[in-house]
Amino acid sequence: MKKRFFCAAFLISAFAAQAQITPSASGVVYGKVSDEGQPVAVDKIEQNLKENKFEGKITGKVVEVCRAEGCWLKLEKADGSSMMVKAKNHSFLVPVDLIGKAVVVDGEAEVKEVSEEMRKHYAEDAGKSKKEIEKIKGSEKQIVFQASGVKVM
């Protein structure tokens, strides 16, 4: 058990040292966010997909963050659902206290089939109860955003 703890602590430290955290005039940037182009509201991303893909920036409110290491977050959509945003290649991590904050996310999105196993894994990382996790059944098509960076507004 101690070995696992130290391995996990080492990995988290290594990723944190790698993460690029930069102060900005309007907030903190995790990773890299381009100054070019205007962000699209998270609810408008479906209209901006070309061949099930999108490249650019989106904006939205954070409703969930990976509690295990901060490698993903979810943005709230108007219909109450959310969109997954993952740190591309684990190149940066975000803190859990981003929940409730407006962000701009830079990167690329794609429609993907997310397996039941992965959906349960994300729910576990988010700190959901066993009961909530057991309710997850089947795979699901989702827009998954691979982010090069997140800017807190």
Please provide a brief summary of the model.
The protein is of the alpha+beta class. It has a single domain, classed as OB fold (Dihydrolipoamide Acetyltransferase, E2P) (Beta Barrel).
Describe the fold and architecture.
By secondary structure, the chain is of the alpha+beta class. The chain is 21% helix and 40% strand. Strands 4-5-6-8-7 form a 5-stranded mixed barrel. The relative contact order is 0.23. It has one domain: Beta Barrel (OB fold (Dihydrolipoamide Acetyltransferase, E2P)), CATH 2.40.50. A hairpin with a 2-residue loop joins strand 1 (21-24) and strand 2 (27-31).
Annotate the secondary structure layout.
Layout: H1 2-18, E1 21-24, E2 27-31, E3 40-41, E4 53-65, E5 72-76, E6 82-87, E7 102-114, H2 116-125, H3 130-134, E8 140-152
Parallel strand pairs: 3-4, 6-8
Antiparallel strand pairs: 1-2, 2-8, 4-5, 4-7, 5-6, 7-8
